[in-house]
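COURSE: Structural Biology Practicum
ASSIGNMENT: Worksheet 4, Part C
STUDENT ID: 0417
INSTRUCTIONS: Below are two proteins. For each, the amino acid sequence is given first, followed by its structure token string. Answer the questions at the end about the second protein only.

PROTEIN I
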Amino acid sequence: MSSLGRMLGVLDLFDDTRLTRTAEDISNALDVSLPTGYRYVRMLLEAGLLQRVEDSQYTLGPRIILLDHYIRKADPVLREGIAVMRELVAATGFDCVLTSLFGTQVLDTHRELGGAPAALAYGRGRPRPLFQGGAPKVLLANFTPQQLRKVFDARHEEIVRNGLPPDWSEFRRHYAAIRKAGHYVSIGELEPQLAAVAAPIPKAEGGAWAAISLVFETSRLAIVDIDKTVHLVTEAAERIGRRLG
């Protein structure tokens, strides 16, 4: 990896379990000398990508907030999708969530709140599990067989832990069925008190831009018309896909 690549790799060292690090931590994690680690920290501080907090600890910097603002304004899916999401919320009263895949990392990128907002453990920017919940299921279902096989080989232990088929042929058929249905209804998969109806936002050339979901409490399942909800979500996803060309 180039020196620039290693320096940018500093940003990947922060997560929910390690919100702050020292220069020594960073140097050890990247397997570079302490002077090199300090140089990376200094350059990232100057760029606003890191900030010093206390006791020689560093955390992610304020420029990332600014970059997130620009990402929100530039994201074509958000630009075309938010109005449609608000229509779904108005029609159902449920939360509406937009979810994207970045490589194999699942991230919610926007949420429109319903009349009684659900208490979600995940929000914009917090990585979600790849094999739990409606949105990841419909996104993976739109992978090519080659892409899906790479995921199967690389994450096989995680696949088995999540109760998915351990055999490649069965695994592929599982996602092919979701793709054919054009939606997925998740009940208590990611969070036991929540259900979701998810559909992919289709690309004209195949695959999916993102997934759109309506999320509601499982306690309301008895009074929710699932077929109607599926129709609303899939129609909304198709409308956003058409707007994106």
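PROTEIN II
(use this one for the questions)
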Amino acid sequence: MNAKAPAHPLPAHSPNEVDSDTRLDALADLSQRLLASARRRGASQAEVSCSEETGLNVNVRMGEVETVESTRDRGIAVTVYFGTRKGSASTADLREDSLEATVEQACAIARYTEDDPAAGLADAELMASDLREFDSWHPWALDADQAIDLALAAEAAGREVNARIGNSDGASVGSGTSLGVYANSHGFIGRERSTQHSIGCALIAGHGDAMQRDGWYSIALAADELESAVSIGRKAGERAVSRLAPRPVATGHYPVVFSAEIARSLVGHLIGAVSGGALYRKSSFLLDSVGTQLFPDWFSIEERPFLPRGFRSASFDAEGVAVRESALVSGGVLQRYVLGSYSARRLGLTTTGNAGGVHNLHVASNAGDLDSLLAGMGRGLLVTELMGQGVNAITGDYSRGAAGFWIEDGRIAYPVDGITIAGNLKTMFQAIEAVGSDIDPRSHIRTGSILLGRMTVAGGSAEG
């Protein structure tokens, strides 16, 4: 028996020739058909997310091609509400009978679930009306051969940096597109499109037990903003060589600088602790902390969802709620939580437009570049790598393996590894003395290096 074709088939395309407007129109049409199907089945509310992604990824190692992968993925997710009973189902099959079965499955689940007073769409009056573009659509006309050449060039440049680089963890090049439509029974339809491209390289210096690994990568929404393959490879090689012959550190209490690419993990721990799910489950060390001084009085974090070419720029969140620029931390004081509508209702609050997560966060700098932070620190530890989990979300206790460099007289003295840094996040937040201007642009959390005045560093011997 032959399966039915979709009543309104999505137009075919190749990964490198995407008519994004046509495909977004098709996804929007599909979302409306699914919402209508949910209404026919008696749903009081419904929402649909439709997405399509394409990608090309290549990996090389020691001058040889290891993998070439071309992907094309799609997903349809349907959520229905019968009063305060919720059901969800998803599919990647666009045949009409499969789509109808998906809606029916969501409805069947909702009919047999318990009532949840917090369930339901975000309030209709909160839906976004000013839908913008953020210069996030920059497809790269990159074929597999070109991607391989770039990856090989990055690895070769890195291996040529120093004769002590004898091995490689490989180099990679990736390019992808993403199209999405979110629609709900309030009449909201939101469309988003973005691209993302990357080049990375990881190299191994030394031999035997003395080997050290490090790397570098560049990621951007537009290919012309990527660092060159050669410069990425060279930086990876220089970083790997700089870690050779590490020395132990005496156990003690020292100032610690988190390099910019590591510093954003501290902000990530804050976001996790002030997010709705952790709060209503009472699994956060920052319960009831809005209005509390968590950081020094000069410290601030702003959410900036409207940045051109921002990694998380958007007009609306995952529920269609309008997002807005706002302070998360101002004057060191936590201004708000990070909430979607469900967690907000559980807490008796209002959504902050963060269903699906935060948008672009900017941590304000109060100091110069990394060199100036190290000079101001004088003596202590520069952390460039963290290992393991080691963070208790309920108590805020923090203990992680680390590697980096020992600083003497404001300059790098020698590499260190096999150490543990420990503290409590509340104390660590208060101990922040400086945020550098060396902002790492490769994330939606934009921060420079962060200097903490004191942490416990466990090394090979007692401080003497």
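ANSWER KEY EXCERPT:
Q1: The domain at 20-236 is CATH 3.30.2290.10 (PmbA/TldD fold).
Q2: The chain has two domains: 20-236, 246-464.
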